[in-house]
């Protein structure tokens, strides 16, 4: 095995994981279109053709919903593999002795318990031996590790949901405040008055009406909402940066309070710990039991093929053609520009990431629906994965790692511990690697600890060295050594990032971020053009965060809009929204009156 395993190009080679295709197709018909929509129904007999632009989570989700309703679906995908940012990929030249190549990825995937739309889709993707399809390939993380530098004790935070949820009568503002204070007192060095202030700010957000959230809090940065500038460094790192940059690649000084408070603090942490609004009896944090493509994407594409979905890979969408009030076709070509042609369908679902979708919308199409032009204001940033392959099993913690003091906002997870259907050294590589520590770098504009350069200024090798050093800085302290240099066999870095060390580094797969005002520029799945629909994590959904759940939810919205336009009698896609605790609704109604009168929230005492 080489010392360093590097992805060299921005375009992965053909997938070599085809062993699941036959099994997936064999059982796929059980939940196919014929089973859901009897022959002779309007949906099954329509024969309408739909072009889905993009083969990531949103595109595949839309394809599944449409195919189950009798539509003829063709998916056009830039890469020669499916899955978008969610896919895993083979590390070239690393498989020996009948083993698969080492698994690489854009960045580790996780499936919070509050996801409900995506898990519903996963249950409907057959997988041999699983009663609930690929959903049964999910495994729960039981802890999160908040690693601190300079020998400070790390915080291991339990992530199991409450087995005995509080009674409705218990969930009062004072009860919530006490719970938040107890957690902050246990896990941080915050001065008592700062912990109390943060708890009070959470109460303000929890009891704010929708109108206040969508106006006042959408325009307020999380940093300002919690008054981080006036507080200690501990407060800023733990409650500001750690909840934004490390988790969703958005700076606390810019991140929308509505998004951070509603999704990360409420849905993920507070209601997750209380077991409210979860996917069945799910825990807060879940991951897959094998590399993503093996456990999910390959069975998914096999199932979709069994439903009649066609895939045209290695195809770049150049322009969505608008004429006479409708979309009349899509100009496509190979990524290198060859093979240019126009493809046609009855309906078109644009499921490309926003940075790629908006360049395909010409002036006439933008004039037909002004919300398309507003998408130019949506922002993306870099969140890039690096995998370290280790000689010994190194789980660190049974869940995710958040290096709170890391200048590059490094997070990670030891993957082999969750891959209980795999033997890492026997199944991957050359037999020397026993674990994969998958890390993500989310801050690319602050200097690192080795070279004093930002990540954008570093070469690929320097970024890897910095990331490893920052992981060790957080984990190798307090008298213990978790990561050893001689344990590291090699590494793989997301090949979507190119030109590192040069004057103009590029990332073909950035992440949508959520600075203040983002909500107002997010489009709806239904456009003003009657045969054109949008799907993707940038589309306005209830989850309001760039996630696989948002991608799936937007696809359901797009399909429902298409069914409406078609006058179809097919059942509409069910859409789950984020949990709203009924105990707090009376306080929100009070706040709605106060908001209309121009008064602050009852708990907003300054």
TrEMBL record:
Stored Pfam families: Amino_oxidase
Xref: InterPro entries: Amino_oxidase, FAD/NAD-bd_sf, TAT_signal, Zeta_carotene_desat/Oxidored
TM region(s), chain numbering: none
GO molecular function: oxidoreductase activity
Record-linked SUPFAM superfamilies: FAD/NAD(P)-binding domain
Domain Amine oxidase: 57-563
Domain of life, per lineage: Bacteria
Protein name per Swiss-Prot or TrEMBL: FAD-dependent oxidoreductase
